[in-house]
Write the structure tokens for this entry.
Amino acid sequence: MNLKKQLVMMLAIPAVLIGCSNEPNAEEEIYNHLENAVTQEEGFKEQQQPLIELEQQEKDLYDQIIDLGMNDFEQIKTLSQEAINLIEQREAKLELEKASIDSAKQEFDKIEQYISDLETDEQKEKVNQLKTAMENRYKAYNDLHDAYASSMELDKELYTMLQKEDLEKEELEQQIDKINASYDQVNELNSTFNNLTKEYNEAKREFYESTDLNVDYGDSENS
């Protein structure tokens, strides 16, 4: 219930490629698709703060419900339904987030057609390492998405249960235990995803450095 789902976005490389030919070579084509993938993740980035705010609003409602006990059942029912409405908003944000990640992955996959045209074995090795990093990151995101969605379903079950006047304490405690275990898993997957994103960003940097691309990293050195 105290989750702060903050995810790391793919690194945007602020750069102007100097000296590009009218006909982009393989390096430049790959660069363009990699940076377009970052653009596709803007929708993912835009969902992070709203998700955090919705989580906090829901937690505030949960705290109010716990403070009430069963002394004001009608108020508990009202607050529980409000919490369910917030979860449904979170679910909508999560699906927008996933659509953005999926779109970025589709853009990334377009680099495949240019790999054989790279000039050196080092470049091919670096871009294949980059592909592996992306595949790992994408899988980690899907695992995280599914775990987070399951946790929200458990949350909804809890708030539905709280609208039952004959709710047994043992039943409530069991549900809360399930939720806590579920969010423990989400937090672990969240950490894994963020670490893999950092690995991906480093692999992308290494690929760029293996090419003749004139990439200005700007302030991203400290990102």
